[in-house]
Specification:
The chain has 3 domains: 124 residues, no CATH class; 151 residues, Jelly Rolls (Sandwich), CATH 2.60.120; 312 residues, Methylamine Dehydrogenase, Chain H, CATH 2.130.10.10. The protein is 3% helix and 49% strand. The strands form 12 sheets. The chain has a 6-stranded antiparallel barrel. Strands 5, 7, 8, 41, 44 and 46 form a 6-stranded antiparallel beta sheet that branches. It has a 5-stranded antiparallel beta sheet with strand order 6-40-45-42-43, with no helix packed on it. The radius of gyration is 37 Å and the shape is elongated.
Length: 633
Amino acid sequence: MVTSPILPATTVPFSLSSSVQAMVDSGVWHDFLIDGVPFLLMPSGDDPYVRDVPEGRRDQFDNSQEAGEQSFAQWWLRSQGSFHGGAGQRVLDADPRSAEVTRTRFDESVYADVWTPGEVSVASSFSSTATDTSALELVVWSGQRRLAKMSGASNEVVFTNLPTPGAPTVVTLGAAGIPQSMCTDGENVFVACDDSIWRVDSAGTALKIATVAFSGPVVLDFAKQRLVLAVGPDLHIVDPDPPVPPVALGVAFHTNPIPAWRYTSAADGPNGIYLSGYSGSLSQVESIGVSESGGTLVLGVPTVQMKLPPDELVNELLFYVNSFFVLATSNGVRVGTFTPYGQPQFGGLSLEGLACHSLAAGSNRVVVGADDSIWWIDLATQIDASPRWATAKWAHALATSPGDHVADVVAFRSGGEDLVCAVTSGTAPILLEQAEYAPFFPAFVSTSWVRFGTVELKQLHYLAVEGRFPLLGGGENPLEITVEASTGESQTVIVPGGRDSYELTITAPPAEAFRLIFRLRNGGLGVERTRLTGFQMKALPRPRRFLTLMLPLSCADSEQDAHGQTVGYDGYARDRLLALEDAAANSRTVTVVDRLTGTSYSAVVERLQFRQAIQPTVTNRMSGTLSLVLRRV
């Protein structure tokens, strides 16, 4: 027994005669019931009953702003030649009018250097070691760049050379205590430890310069040639080179009126000293104005410059060449600018939903330390009007335990490369270092999903890639490409190297959308780097096939069914013909009950023709064949 799908009830706008409705209600025999109108099939050699499934193909025309992206040579094409617009674009052609959808963006990446327009290469990887370090700073001693590593377990700061570490210099701060915070003026390092502030000079000598009770969370930063010390809600302004050290700090320069307030960072801004902090779900940025009086700089009272949305807390504040300010918050990163009057303006939220904790200014980009990951923000590439800026993940899976994060990060340039050192938080901190360019891990780039401007199914046939794909040896391949279909199926193809371009055959099943995941691998140091400069996808629409029925139906006032029983009445043919003509004329979808196959479905009337070969009589006005073409929908 064939079970038919249940279709929704169809209301026929054309009113059937009571006689037809009575026959339907009585269960009159029929082969087809079309919108409630019964018909008997009457095929012949000249007019057979036909069920056809023809091919239907949707052609596209070239309406893309980029030449050749639609239908040249009948192919549907999508291509991309640069990735410097950054990550976060899920679908390539969601809305071609939107400025947020560009051919320079992609979905996700890791260990991929996407910042050179026109190419993707492998970024430098990190070496990781267990450490007790809790904070980092960069200094230059006698022309040698050094990395200062503040211990989180003992009263020490360790200095190592960069990029080649060499023998470390260990500086002890007093007799006991655990350092709480550290900053630098570029040469000297200042450390808050054991209710004291210590200065470590370029000779590696530690000197206590100030004392104050550490009765709350401690933050120490350098701004406007001063040390800004925050102890809970209290702010102290400290001379980095007092005439007679150590100086006992007295009444705070400013105390936030909220007792639970915690300052998180201070930064040297274009118009003064800027401070970030929070209490509960409230977070804001304040500024201390700086003026001159008699040759002496005078600091004003902190004033609120901006308030963050509820539950978005600022963890660190950074100024980038006095043109931008960057906020690392519990919800992501905000990049802002200044009005002509020096008023900071909010930017849109990048890395939304990712807690960000630390910031460092690189030569061209800002480096962000976040939950278990390190990111880039390119302040040269704005991606929308909010504004937001291009971002990409540098590295992930860095911490040892859930909840750990990149607590501090520093950036420097060496050998023409932007390199980074960082440290994670937690009970088992990890020190992440880059002494030189070393691509230990392959780069991954996942493109945006490509739908070719339509949700119809399409078949991806070919993929062309261009770049520099050197021979690596050792069984390694410079490029592997995984083609993912929206159906969840995938196919991986290999680029063996030795050529600059490849065209690869794809056998992925038809799908609404596709995306590509590129895996780039370099050879050893000194070997030419693998570079991807562009790709092109070639697809064709999957033919859409719809069942078409050609039905020769009896349409007479008096008919004989399969059981030999005569049914009908005067006007039976007219009532049924007019009902179907109304459906055809109004392009209405009809419900078909197909008794031959035991199925029910919706269809549209593509053609209707009534042919009568006999002269009407007084008792039999209409008697002929109704040729009906239905297309199932």
